[in-house]
# Entry
Amino acid sequence: LRAFDARASIEQLRQAVRIAREHGLFELLARAGLAMVGSPGVVTIPDGRGVLEDALAGLPASAHALRAQALCQLSWCAPLCFDAGRAGALVEQAEQAAALAGSAQARLTVLRARVHLEAGPRQPLERTLERMAQADAAAREVGPIAEGLWRMQRRAVLAVVASQRGERALLERTLGELTDTDRARFPELAWH
# Structure
């Protein structure tokens, strides 16, 4: 994919999908699908769901780590994400595959999916924070890019959960961390 050229990157990704489908390259198809559906609730490129479904249909049963990631990211796609039962079943399958894989990346993706699926006013805050701590550890194991992406999701979820629960101190702390992170990354924007 091309850096700083979203349109060209999307076109190259679509070409990779076309080639992968034509030649039965299901690992490539799965990786393209993962790129198309990057975060819970965000389908970056249309048809990510179809690409992930096609990849899962053709991936060998032994591709545990890739299957786990694809199943989780499929659970983030509409309309599956609107049905907690269907999304939860996909995450359950992913959890089993991740356990067989022993992959930190697969474990992190499962934990991200669990947090997205379960966090909210019905879930005890301690359980959400426990899952987040597990994801923190997995993200550190995967590396700095995964850690940064997880950190953004973590803060967004915490802000939503805190506002849903009326946890003012947690909300202020979470929003403060977001502001501090932005100031550290972009000091030129802190002009006031």
In short: The chain has a mean pLDDT of 89. The longest helix spans residues 144-165.
